[in-house]
Amino acid sequence: MKKFLNALFLTLLAVFTFSSCSDVPAPYDILGEGDVPGLTGDGSKDNPYTVSDLKAKADGTTVAWVQAYIVAGIKSSTDMSISSENDVVFGTQPTDVKATAFLIADDRGESDYKNCSAVNLSGKTAGCSEVKAALNLVDNATTPLPRLVTLKGTLVKNTWGLPGLKEVTTAILEDGTVVGEGGDEPTPPVGGVTFFEESFASDKGAFTIEDKTRPTKVSEIWKWESYTPEGGTASTYMKASAYISATEKEASESWLISPVVNLTKATKASLTFEHAHKFCGDPAKELTIWVKESTASDWTQATIPTYGTNQNWTFVSSGNIDLASYIGKNIQFAFKYISTTSAVGTWEVKNVKIIGEGEGGGEQPTPPGEEGTKIFVETFGTVTANTNVEGYTGWSNSDFTFSVNNAKVNLRTILHKTEANKTESTEKINHIWFPNAGDNTFTISNINAAGYNKFVLYYEEAANTYDVGSSIDLNVLKIKFNGTEVVADSKIVTATVKAADANIFYEMQVELNVEGTANSTLEFSALAADNTLGLRLANIRLYAVGEGGGTEPEPTGNLLTNSGFENWTADTPDDWARVSVTSANTWEKSTDAYNNSSYSILIKGNTSNNRFGAKEVQLEVGKYTIDVYAKIADSASSGAKLKTGIVPINEVGSPGTYNYGETTQTAFELTDSWAVYTNTIEVKAAGLYSVFLVNAKSGSNKNVLLDDVTLRKAVE
What CATH number was assigned to the domain covering residues 568-713? Predict the structure, then answer.
């Protein structure tokens, strides 16, 4: 069929090419009466999908561009889905239609709803509200149809009973006007120079974590996590969540901060990453990205072009975040997560990159032999003359606190001579100077080293061995970490050539078997009696080694698919089915959904337990929590009750003994407002299980609405 359409299109193209002299304005090249735009589309803005393509490729996760004609509205009286021609209104200016959706078609003269796709305008992603305002058929009733549009959204199997688009973030109108998030992502910088890359394959890499506000019942907000779906491959990422329980929600703020990235020789650069999120109130406000010059103290928020649907755990590309204003600088960026007393979301981030044009650059290099999780690197910024520590703002780690016991311990710069390059060095190194007079101390505090109890400290040290025969052991510079003193191995340096052997920097390292905290302190000190020549301290690097923490992990991600009942095939939600063998339950699709999503499910009441089950999942031995949002369907359903649990499913698909967990046989009594109901289940034997939801013997007129079901491994 597609080959036939393509052939037809080429024929029409030839006809129009030789019979028409009129120009057609960009971006739509050949759009005459009855034309089918984008027959060979690939889903990009420049080559969008057709409605036919949309129907073939709709999977609930793909985000793509679709070009078509708005041809009809959905009647205001239509309930949940289109089932006949009486549910839609074709015409130039359809009336008595919904403001939340319309139909699109490849043919501008289409009059059969079965040849159309539905566009759901009730999205929550950035840009959706602008698109709805510009295109809905109620507020724009005077704009005649058909109307050619190019839309960017998520391709879904079912919305309003048809394959279609949801979370429509951008629209391009016939006159070229762009509405919504600003069009397609910026074109990636040409050249492909990678300035920074972190996949979070095994840990948080060189990123640091700073909790501004953390609930007392939450041990950590940002953490590294790995998840392997049944039959799938492992996915690793950094995850932020301040989740306590379904009934306890507290405000929090936590930053995942990058190491310093060198863009001093870049000519173009942009930041991109993949992310997934769910349960947020407003992702664009609660999940944000911030950038600053490494020596600055203030952060500037950047715009994330693309968010996910907030309804599933599907990773989407952020789009490219332009870093043009930071070209020629050393920078840091940070992922800022917040929760509120009304919404506690979860944010998962991976595959972070900065790419562009120019020369290399990149993160501050890791010296050979350094291993572990980088806690911080401090290179003391840019120093051009002797500078007091107090009041200096050029630190590599602006959130730390730096102090000295007297002003004689100060910041300086000097040629970076090393054992390998004693005479030819032209680059200078910034450092802390410890004069040989007095007991001198330099302290770094507010270091977030929580969750680790073993560290390796690397640093460079030099001595002012100026005169021939002058000698000193570099280990006279003592180290304290959280009050515990350690001493480096002996390293005696001696001058054999006057001046030439002075201030050569040597690599030093010590192991710290000390409990780290969220406000750790690192102290360098030298006593007057030991420091006879003067010492210089530079390039401090602290790494955590071994397994972190000892704190219990947060619950894993949701193990259920289509947990919000957003995707339906015919009259049944995908990945859900009847599991009861004792009574026949009945259900309906409902648009009275939690958190402004599209659908929930209505389970009708009965005098028997009407169980509705999720697609079975593999569970290991341990405890799991089930959360479900629920309410009564109407006033006549007052007194309706809900039970939740799990049931083993055997090899032929039959259920075993129903396990109601901590609720035992006691049901939750529902109200007329959406609320979350939590149950804890213990699995004593590994195997396949189905989560089931029960409208519990409430009576034939007691109907309940259910939405956003989650199954997670519990923290024990």
Answer: 2.60.120.260
